[in-house]
Design a protein that fits this description.
Helix 4 (100-112) packs across helix 5 (129-136). The protein is 39% helix and 15% strand. With 375 residues, it is α/β, with parallel strands linked by helices. The termini are far apart. The protein is globular and about 60 Å long. The strands form three sheets. The chain has a seven-stranded mixed beta sheet, with helices on both faces. Bound molecules: pyridoxal-5'-phosphate. Pyridoxal-5'-phosphate binds at residues 37, 100-102, 127, 176, 180, 206, 208, 232, 234-235, 240, 245. Its cofactor is pyridoxal 5'-phosphate. This is Histidinol-phosphate aminotransferase. It holds the Pfam family Aminotran_1_2. Residues 288-341 form a coiled coil.
Amino acid sequence: MTDFIPSFIREDLLKLSAYIPTPISDNQKQLTRLDANESPYNLPSELRIKLASFYEQEIETNRYPDGSHSVLKRLIVNYVNESINKEGLFNVNNISIGNGSDELIRSILMATCLNNQGSILVANPTFSMYKILAESLGINTISIERNEIDFSWDIDKANQAIRETNNPPIKVIFVVHPNSPTANCLNDSEIAWLKNLPSDILVVIDEAYYEFSKKTLAIELKNYPNWLVLRTFSKAFRLAAHRVGYAIASPAIINVLEKLRLPYNLPTFSQLAAQFAMENRQLILPAVEETIKEKERVFQELNKIKNLKIWRSDANFIYCRLKENGNYENHQNILNQLKEKNILIRHTGGGLRISIGTPEENDYLLSTIQSLFNQ
Ligand SMILES: *Cc1c(COP(=O)(O)O)cnc(C)c1O
């Protein structure tokens, strides 16, 4: 069986490698997992107990989920309007909910670029799923490099890519606010550039870390109908296990995303969990403030290490690089040495991305990393 490559498989898929998340092993509870930007905190136990009781009392496992997501959509609308202080600005026709934002990214790609209709533009280092999902659909990704100083977009290079990419033209630009892995929000000139882009290009603004940055461009969607904002329950809402993300955009775009998604893309229990998290966000989101405080502390401590260059972060993680000999092997070496001490971080985009954990986890990370550099 092993060598058989079926000829009915698309040839372009044979050379793709899958996104391989860190395997979750039996000893996961003993690991310090600072590699996926998750919240280090489970839902508060009173909420988990309540959720479990829903499962006992309300869920009909024999029935399909609510394919309209109507209850959850209404809750999200309230939250989004609250986040921009504009009651009633958005309604349920401005929201589409996906099985994680990943599903929405794929739907966006299908809606815009499939069948050789368009290419996408990204600026590296950035979230890898845009390119991975594009490749899986046979869609061309144009990648430019970010400015090395502050990881902003090189706008000249971006404009040049837009001008010169014709076959097929760039239809979607993915920006991240704040970016992963580099943790910077869009600056004023980047935002001005996005505002001036032609309206035949879709601008996707991924706000996965909005609750940490407290910055959002959602209010601009009313002025720029070619913009779309993505958010998720996987980070500040502590629901990565449930796979729920949402898009905010004009009804015309949302309509198409709703056509493309699978009819029952969100399991009943995930919808319930997301609804419940929204309704009880005053019990869940305060942990964001603790993470922000811890981030400042971790930043200050890492900053004392002479050979580390560290960037300011608007998210729940910190990006750093070796100042001297910052090649692939040396970064990988640090990752491996931390792994030996049961600490997981991520080596990506030519540097190291470290998620902020609990105070105890951060202490352990700091003492381990300090001893690596003091050897
Ligand atoms: C974590 C993250 C997401 C969330 O993806 P989900 O599929 O909703 O879990 C989206 N975008 C970026 C940039 C992220 O870092």
